[in-house]
Amino acid sequence: MGEAASAGPPLDRPPFPTLYVGDLHPNVSELQLQYVFSPCGAISSIHVCRDRVTGASLQYAYVNFFSYLDAKNALTLMNHYPLNGRPIRIMWSQRNPLSRRNGIGNLFVNNLDCVDVIALENLFAKYGTVKSCKLAMDESGKSKGFGFVQMDTEEAAQSAIRALNGRFLQGSKKKLYVSKFVRQDEKQPLLERPNKTNLYIKNLDWAITDEVLLKRFSQYGTIRSSVVMKNKDGKSRGFGFVDFLSAEDAKNALNDMNGLKFGTRTVYVGYAQTKSQRKVLLSRLFGNYHLFYHDQIATIFVRNLEESVDGKALREHFGGCGKIWCARVIYNKVNAQSMGFGFVRFFSAEEANRAVQRFNGTIFHGRILYVAFARNKEYMLRVSLAQIREHFAIFVTRGEYPTAHMYTPKSATN
Q1: CB neighbours of 333 closer than 8 A, spacing ≥ 6?
Q2: Do residues 299 and 225 make contact, with C-beta atoms less than 8 angstroms apart?
């Protein structure tokens, strides 16, 4: 029987038969992709993503099939196919921003001086399903000696780390280095790590006790002390500290446990810092908005707010999406006027995602809201002409015509 007759899509199958095609040569067009992928099955549409201003290719595209089976065949047969001299990288399209940003299964691999992208994928496929595999190349097409691999589960990624890290590959004189991939904005400067034995663990399950924390981390080495911080009632505050005797043991624990599920939650593990060190680091990274960027995947950015909207109004408006940690509208320090944007931090990433899906593009106090996951400060303060056009199109579709002031950010007028 066909796909339509099945009881439902497999749990590991994405919701749409859409493939992401990356690492494209800048000259690759939709027509060329149509020619390459059409032997795999009937194609619904192809879109090469381009810069909105210059029209230049962003070097990735989406290929939409009518059938999941055809899309799967294309993924199997065409992944790493050399197109215009570059091996293309194919994976299932991930439309949910959480799945792209949570870092689950993402690995960084170094010392790949004698490995091509196909050999790299085959190497990691022994430990689980490889969702994506990329070898960094220079402009001449020569390998830079490092790459990135995304496994389908965190368990598979950890298995690959244990099996491959420190191993010599055939023909190489260098030990393979495999570790969790950490985005640049999550890395802590070495200058801010004076105590490399004391770890800070955040987003702990409420049921995690001192004993459970000690037992879990003691597998990495001898521990001086470990504690789950508690409130006056003796209940966990959701974070704690583990101090190792050895800096090397602490480093291994950090690399292994950061981003790993512990209990029912995915924990953040980093080096513990004093209050002054945290203030300097957060100020350097995020300016005045560090409280909200501290946990970006649970924080949303809300723009185009009407002047009378304050933090209380934000909290009430978004409260239906989940439990809110804090909500804040940003004000001009000179004249105390609203700058037209703010942040809402939820207790979980799922609640934040619900808010983005529900409220982006909706009207609040006569304004169309732009709601997205919080990113770096410069990105959030930048006015996006593309978003303005999209908002205008929404109004025109409804037969309404917005006034110019609705799109004038307060920061541009103060």
Answers
A1: none
A2: no
Structure tokens at 7: 């009881």
Angle between helices 30-37 and 68-78 in degrees, nearest 10: 100
Three-state DSSP class for residue 188: coil
How far apart are alpha carbons 123 and 146 in whole angstroms?
14
Domains and CATH numbers, the chain: 11-102 (3.30.70.330), 194-272 (3.30.70.330), 289-413 (3.30.70.330)
Cα distances (angstroms) measured from residue 15 to each of 2, 27, 219, 356: 17, 30, 39, 19
Beta strands in 316-382 (DSSP E): 324-331, 338-346, 363-364, 367-368, 370-373
22 vs 65: CA distance, rounded Å: 17
Please provide the DSSP assignment of 402-414 as one string: --GGGG--HHHH-
Angle of CA points 80, 85, 87, to nearest 5°: 15
- Please give the model's pTM, rounded to 2 decimal places: 0.39
- Contact call for residues 92 and 20 (beta carbons, < 8 A): yes
Q: Edge-to-edge strand order for the sheet containing 370-373?
A: 324-331, 338-346, 299-303, 370-373
pLDDT digits (tens, 9 = 90+) for 335-370: 677 888 888 988 888 888 889 888 988 899 888 888
